Amino acid sequence: MTIQRQYNLPNCTLILEGLSDTVTASSEVRPLMSILVNAECHFVGHTNPLVGGRDFFESLINAVSHYAQEFLSGIHPVAKKSGMGLVEVHRLEQQIHRLSVHDPDAKHSEATPPQVQLDLTTVQLFDLIEAIDQFFADSQTLPDLSLQLTPLPRRDVRSSQPMVKRAVPVAVGASTLAAAIALFSLLPFPKVRQPDALTPQAAKQATSSPSPTTNPKAGASPSPTASASASPTGAAAISETALTSAPALTDPVKIKDLEAGLKTKIDQNWKTQPTFKEELVYRVGVSANGDILGYKYVNSAALDFVNETPLPDLYYKPVPGSTKNSEPLAQYRVVFTPSGQLQVSPWQETAASPLASPLAVTEITDPEQIKALQPKLYERIDQSWKTKPTFDKDLTFKVRLKADGTIVDYKPMNQPANDYVKEVPLSDLGTLTSDDTSPSAEPLALFKVVFKPDGKLEVSPWRGYQP
Amino acid sequence: MQVNSPPAQSTPLILDSLMNPAIPDDACPRRTMQQIDLILLAIEALDLGGSEAILAVADELELQGIIKNRVVLWRLRSTNPLRRFNQRRPMTLTEAKALVVIGCNLARRLTVLIRQLLLAYQQLSEKQLSFEHHFRLYDYLERFRSHFRARMNPKRTAVTAYSSDEKLNELAIQLLGQLLFCTGTAGMQRFWVSLFDGEVA
């Protein structure tokens, strides 16, 4: 007995004809249909129904079911399974769906045009799906077919962005990088230059002249602190070139006059109380009419305390563009001592002194000789020091000694020494001098002599003990 | 015997009709949360009292254990990554199921209207007329656009893609078609499964 099942929807009617394989009582209202003979699918507006056997029907429900899922999720599977090619659904436009049915007899391939093509609206497609769903829900019809719904696995999903589109950002990034590399390669490599300040020039100076800054030798060689680039005031820079390039005054009488004039000039203008602890030594250039045309720092203290001296005020600022440089100069060594004394002496004289000459042996530096002289000096001072000290601070003197042990001169090195110079026996042994750099015919040994308030005497080599 | 704690709340039976997809951590993927919110947005655009109806249906289907109140509903819908006030916390599968059941239920009540609007769209497209010629469709599209623009974060790239009226209309029609599919006999299951397309291993 043929059983017919019909699923009616406004736009689609699905008619299934089949048989029951079990012998059932005919009285049963809805006998079980287990064998499908014929399936028909009618669409409103399309005269020819889709007709087929079980293969067609299975393919239809498969294709439609998958397409429904695709429509809902908007995600297309990568590859259509080739086995069920009888019915295919494609999206034509947003709301138009094409249902294609291939001839089951013809060998299915891309080239053969489908037997039937139907363009369905979304509502029509939904009615088809609904008919199929109602068939699935009907347990009395083909119960071996049931709705199988599974989400698409990740590997079957085509990325929403095509390969070319995804490659664009990568390509743009890579080409930008390449362009940047090309551009920057055109730029020159920056040269790594060691900063000059890292190699101390002072060390270089110390090797050429092992004397401290007060030594006239340092004055003879260009002092690093007074170099044009390092000087804090423009005046120093100008004055240095003026000092070196100008011709010298040679008339001895004129030099003597200028020396006296310079001394009074500085003396009158030097009103500040000295705060510096070291002598400030300057090389000063004076023109024939007495103007200070330039001055130069000889030691570092001179640079640091230049504002305590009247030199910047007295400096004659040349009119720009004038030819002051060609004026003949007399050069003087001007020393400001911490005790407030001013010493002015012709530069040539000091510079030409044997002490300043590198060839002359001016100082006894032989450790053995100094070692021998030290106890002698101590003996002599100690024996003649009879008075009880009234001072309460150390008196430090710099004492110059001939090789035979006789004291040439001495110089107070601190303020108490200057104040209590009368209390110590040095005046009997040598002459008091304020210029410990004055030239001497024979080599001298330098010693530091300290008188302590408790009556102790200390004598040590001025340059320290040699190793 | 004294009972110290209330019996553990069993998940409503109605949710069992939806399969459990193989996703890690019981947390819904981004696309799932986005799609659920958009479907509910389309329902709200169709039905003026849509948001009230969502709560009412939650009560009817005995889902008030999951959708407790307006605030919970709002927070659930804000898991949509496109939202202005996007909630970072993920949506659990149970919550997603509840919202899908409610959405499909509401869609089924609106079946007639949905069909009408889709037919109208079809007719207007065939005649190449603008949507203004059908009042009800025009109304839906306009309301959907304003809902979307008011609630979605315009700085998001995915939202800027819908900056024009045409693009938003297209989205609204697409959602209308999806709503129609939800009304079917197996529509709820189909919709639920489609939410995890490409998300399971």
**DSSP strand count of chain A:** 16
Largest sheet of chain B: none
How helix-rich are the residues of chain B, as a percent range? Answer: 55-70%
Low-confidence stretches of chain B: none
Oligomer: heterodimer
The number of distinct helices of chain B, counting runs of at least 4 residues, comes to: 9
- Please compute the radius of gyration of chain B using only Cα atoms: 18 Å
* Beta-strand content estimate of chain A: 15-25%
Query: What is the 3D form of chain B?
Result: globular
Broad structural category of chain B? mainly alpha
Structural class of chain A: alpha+beta
The overall pLDDT of chain B, averaged over residues, is 87
State the separation between the terminal residues of chain B, measured CA to CA.
Answer: 47 Å
Topology of chain A as a string of helices (H) and strands (E): EEEEHEEEHHHHHHEEHHEEHHEEHHEEE
Total tally of structural domains of chain B: 1
Order of strands across the main sheet of chain A? 14-13-12-15-16
Number of strands of chain B: 0
Mean pLDDT of chain A: 75
Q: Evaluate the radius of gyration of chain A.
A: 58 Å
Approximate strand percentage of chain B: under 5%
Poorly predicted runs of chain A: 202-238, 352-361
